[in-house]
Amino acid sequence: MSTLRFKAIENLNVLDLKTFKVEKKLSEYFCENVFNIDTMRQYLSKDVFKIISTAIDSGEQINRDIADQIALAMKEWSLSKGVTHYTHWFQPLTGATAEKHDSFFSPLEDGRAIERFNGGMLIQQEPDASSFPNGGIRNTFEARGYTAWDPTSPAFVIGTTLCIPSVFISYTGETLDYKTPLLRALQSVDAAATEVMRAYFDRKTTKVYSTLGWEQEYFLLDLGLANARPDITLTGRTLVGHSPAKGQQLDDHYFGSIPSRALNFMMELEVECMKLGIPVTTRHNEVAPNQFELAPMFEEANLAVDHNSLLMDIMGRIARKHNYKVLLHEKPYAGVNGSGKHNNWSLSTDAGDNLLSPGKNPKRNLQFLTFFINTIKAVHEFPELIRSCVASASNDHRLGANEAPPAIISIFIGSQLTEVFNELEKVTEGKLSPDEKTELKLNVVGKIPEILLDNTDRNRTSPFAFTGNKFEVRAVGSSANCAEIMTVMNTIMAFQLRKFKVAVDELIEKGLKKDEAIFNVLRDYIKEVRPILFEGDGYSQEWVEEAEKRGLANLITSPEALATETTTKHINLFESSAVLSKREIYARNEIKLEKYSTNISIEAKVLADLSRNHIIPTGIRYQNELIENVKGLKEIFGEDYRDKAEQQIQLIKEISEHNFEITRLVKELLETRRKAEQITEAQEKANVFCKDVIPYLNQLRHHVDALEMLVDDEMWPLPKYREMMFIK
Ligand code: ADP
Ligand code: MG
């Protein structure tokens, strides 16, 4: 009897399930633990409050004196909440969030002590950068780094710690985190979009910000069952496991009722989110059993990114209280729907005007078309970058794997807007006749329905879809930090808007009217972007062939995708936008490649260990039982035993064959892994892990899963798929 697995199942039956009580209205919890604008108004003098709130909007520097006063207010507020420590909370390139807790406690010379926190401590903290990945930056240059306060994202309290959202930078100025490039990209898109708005649409615009609404998918797994699976514990996914008799074919869980343990977990999570100011609004079952989704109201992109990182962090902690493990991996179970994180992206003015939302009149719709078509042009120009910024070993299981969006980046815009494109493509070159202008304004632009949101044609297979008033980027993986895709989206959009402005101004200089110039440039763009527009089934083989004919990249694996990151085109993009330097691009690329190799390497080691310590011994044990049985039959029936033992003998043979293959494959896998580990060049190493190591993982799995079907259930040591997915 395999103890861990059965103990876990037994425990499930006696689980003392915790019911979570929501004590008050959710709105009353909202921002309880956030030092936001409202709290600041309460704790700061009028003057200081004005300075900080303007600085947050404009991005201006805050001087030391003001910082001291803010720190004082933060301390006062924190102490009222029983806080003892503070930490700069940042997002290093490891993927997790990082904290180094320092105490407010400060001894005085006379033996007394006070709580101390000042502007200096608020602005800067020095974690030990040596344990964070930096892609060679620290080897070649100044090693140490520091964290610096990001005033645009409010501080918050978790437990007894005040968390101060921060950026993480090396002393030589290189960025070592996700947030810094994002903030720069947001500045870049603000500048470019504001300029376009002011020049052509609205003189009053002073700021354009990017909005993000993420949708987080995840799996819940009983903690006991999870602990009995070394692969889940060490890699976040199952490396072996036969699919259950009942899969997700029935689709009976999608929008079905949420099981009560999961519901209790969600309620507690939502209350925690509310307290931290994360405006979660929807929860539901997802396609696969025990898979769920959580989504907030959209927010300014920097804040939304912080909130998603924070959410991923607190989910794990709250899940433990309900005896769950949260699986954020993109593909915890083979053959079952994986998890993504749709990123809904748009731009909005300081007046709250969504630039990707059509409006009531032709002028407003021309504004919509401008931003809409420029987004498409930006993606058309940089599809590899979108693919590579979502690349990871775990997301490779999802992209192009017949359920999630394909690895080919294309854009879905829907039939109504396709018709608008067809009309706009016919616009005459140069000056437009008065008739044509009227026709355009009234019958093309003017007819763009104000609410495209009701549009029912929502292609689920597209990696990048327009959904009425925003673009939905669906290629992002569930475990990813949203900062990367947001950095890319806003950088390419800024770059594109700058080019657009130059092109339109050139035509205006040549004597065209503003609108004529815009129509002319947009018409040319529409002609150029045609290949990337696709309305059909993104999962089909025909699309793969069609995309190839159109010249679209199909970067199936991460190493292929990551290889495109360091092209001159991409370096020019990031450098000209002051988002990332060449050195930073290379460093980040190296980190991602190394992370990829490390992940595959760990999986290889774990599967080898599992095979040797769990699987092979189990096969042998069952085989011995069968051999005993055959021997017994022989004793009883003498030479006639053969007829009676036919099946057992066949089983013994099959188990032998699988065990033999598993032993051989483990040996070869470890040898291949060892060779790959010796490669020093990051790209080459990732290529070898991808091409040479991964096939062994798949072959091994094939034999292990076959054994699972042959061996007595009572002996199988690992929780099975049916147990992990269907026990609620
Ligand atoms: P659906 O659930 O059908 O995909 P919704 O309209 O409910 O569509 O929106 C899904 C997500 O899009 C939500 O997280 C929402 O906050 C986000 N969203 C809506 N409008 C915007 C916007 N202007 N910018 C960014 N995200 C948005
Ligand atoms: Mg969605």
Please, could you describe this protein's structure?
The chain has 728 residues and is of the alpha+beta class. 52% of the residues lie in helices and 12% in strands. The protein is globular and about 105 Å long. The structure holds adenosine-5'-diphosphate and magnesium ion. The site of adenosine-5'-diphosphate has 13 residues, from strand 10 and strand 15. Magnesium ion (MG) binds next to loops.
Low-confidence stretches: none
CATH class of the largest domain: Alpha Beta
Number of domains: 3
Task: List each distinct ligand once.
Answer: adenosine-5'-diphosphate, magnesium ion
Number of helices: 25
In the CATH hierarchy, the third-tier topology of the largest domain is known as Creatine Kinase, Chain A, domain 2
Mean pLDDT score: 90
Helix/strand-derived category reads alpha+beta
GO biological process, one term: glutamine biosynthetic process
EC number: 6.3.1.2
Organism: Candidatus Ornithobacterium hominis
Domain GS beta-grasp: 84-173
Features:
Four Helix Bundle (Hemerythrin (Met), subunit A), 728 residues, globular, binds magnesium ion, Creatine Kinase, Chain A, domain 2, GSIII_N, seven-stranded mixed beta sheet, Ubiquitin-like (UB roll), eight-stranded antiparallel beta sheet, binds adenosine-5'-diphosphate, 3 domains, 52% helix, ligase, Gln_synth/guanido_kin_cat_dom, 17 strands, single chain, glutamine synthetase activity, EC 6.3.1.2, alpha+beta
Summarize the structure.
This protein is of the alpha+beta class and 728 residues long.
